[in-house]
Amino acid sequence: MSLEKPNLPEVRRFDSSTGARIYRITCDAFPGLTVHIYLLLEAGVPTIVDAGSGLGHANQQLLAGLEKVRDEFGESVTLADIERIIITHGHIDHFGGLTFLHSQAPQAEIAIHELDARILTAFDERVAVAKRGLRRFLQDAGVGNDLLPGFMDIYGFSKKNVQSLPSVRTLVDGQQLDGLRFVHAPGHCPGQVCITLGNVMLTADHVLPEISPHQAPESIMPYTGLSHYLESLEKVGRCEGIELGLGGHQAPMRDIYKRIKEIHRGHHRKLDKILGVIREAPAPVTTDEIAKQLYIHVVGFHVLLALEEVAAHVEYLYQHGKLTIANLEQFQREEDAPIRYVVA
């Protein structure tokens, strides 16, 4: 499993006020996207947080990263020493490599929040439920029947090589484990957790330094949606004493409290922008029509991501009484009628 030198991952070390050593291994997730995997030492048993996507060279990069931890940082840890694998949330770029990692370290206990546990233990079931919710969402959003199969294929393309595991340890909000404290932060994903180690927080995808994590409406999956996300954002902001935030992507954050406020303001700007689009439209509009107006140049998988992002904000506006359904009689009468919104 040797790697070409240009593909070797970056490894950085960070230290917690608890005495834990945190090694960040950066691996490819998808084309154009990298993800961080963390090795925790002196935080109880040797622990790996997240497993990467398992796609392309990701698994080999993880192994190469662990080798760099030994060779360049003088740590003696090997995969045989890993006793715990924590998955921060059930998105493929964070757990797709778990089957491979588990095969290399079968002795390691696997832990994930209870709301995402079935993505690991009953993967086919979880995907089937999500796909049914997605199909209904696409119809309500006004996506044409001719485009539905393509969107469904886009959703499922990265999920074909994942295998279910027999059992996992489930985590709950506020749980403490060997100095790790878990903060349940749903919204981006139902079972998203942030992990604190003294003055350091592993924020996974909940707080990122340059972007706001992708939002999807809870009409597709419970415990997602912008309402849950903003509530979780405020909850994480109430965690005191965090001096360093380490996310699942991008650079370290020296002031996560400032970043939380920035993300919050950004979502409210987007809400105002969507309200403006709906208010100025000559006729009631579907979610798909709003997305096409706001995201003109996106292609491929990003078309679906843009549609979900807009839908999460439209759903929030509707939940908070800012919008109303203009074609209610048609929606009640016709099974496949899209929802058309006007400002309430």
Would you kindly provide a written description of the structure presented here, covering whatever features stand out?
- By secondary structure, the chain is of the alpha/beta class.
- It folds into two domains: 5-117 and 163-265, Ribonuclease Z/Hydroxyacylglutathione hydrolase-like (Metallo-beta-lactamase, Chain A, 4-Layer Sandwich), CATH 3.60.15; 268-343, Arc Repressor Mutant, subunit A, CATH 1.10.10.
- It has helices spanning 58-73, 92-95, 98-104, 117-121, 123-141, 148-156, 226-237, 256-280, 287-294, 301-319, 328-333, and strands spanning 10-15, 21-30, 33-41, 47-49, 84-86, 109-113, 169-171, 176-177, 180-184, 193-197, 200-204, 244-247, 323-325, 341-343.
- It has a seven-stranded mixed β-sheet, with helices on one face. The protein has a five-stranded mixed β-sheet with strand order 8-9-10-11-12, with no helix packed on it.
- β3 and β4 form a beta hairpin.
- α9 (287-294) crosses α10 (301-319).
- Residues 1-6 have low confidence and may be disordered.
